[in-house]
Structure formats: structure tokens, C-alpha cells
Predict the 3D structure of the following.
Amino acid sequence: MSSSSRSSGNLTADGIVVTGQCKLVSIHGINLHATDMTVIVVYDNTAASGKVVAKMAIPGLTSAGSDQSGATVNPTATSMEYDMHGVLCRNGLYIDVTNGTPHVTIEYA
């Protein structure tokens, strides 16, 4: 038997991911803002309240400059992944995003 999951697609702002019972499989995020940190909170709910099932803070881009050899390096982004191992959420999934320039996907079953 194989298992599969659905993806929220690219999320950049607050919103409902899914309503009703589901399993939270994973969260992937990147912040493309030059300086601001992005904070992402995922709730077992259809609003930004109630039970928090995950929270991640993703720093802004690292500065451009030179590496140890003197070569120019461009700003780079930090990406993060949380493997949630199928956490059961009874009410749905809601994402609350604060600051930055986030790009987030949420996988659920």
C-alpha cells in the first residue's frame, strides 16, 4: 500500500489550507526578503487561533559580499523543512504569516 499527500501549493500570505480533519505531513518554507525574518505559524483550525501545531522562523537573505577566496557571492536564502510525521489535525489547517517575503508549501493527507 502506498501513501500520498496533497500540497497547498505556494502560499505567500495568511489563509486556510484545508478544512476538516487531516494529517499534517510537512512544511517547506523560504524567505526572500533582504532583511526581515518571516514567522510562520500553522494552526489546527480554520483561523489564526486555537492549537498551534508548528511554528518556524526563517531569517532574511544573507548579505552579498566576498567569500574567503575573494570571489563575489550573491545573497542567498535560507530554506527550512519540518517533517511533521502525519500529525492529526481535527479542524483543518490555517497558516499565519508575519513579515518577510515567504514562499511556503504545506503537505497534508
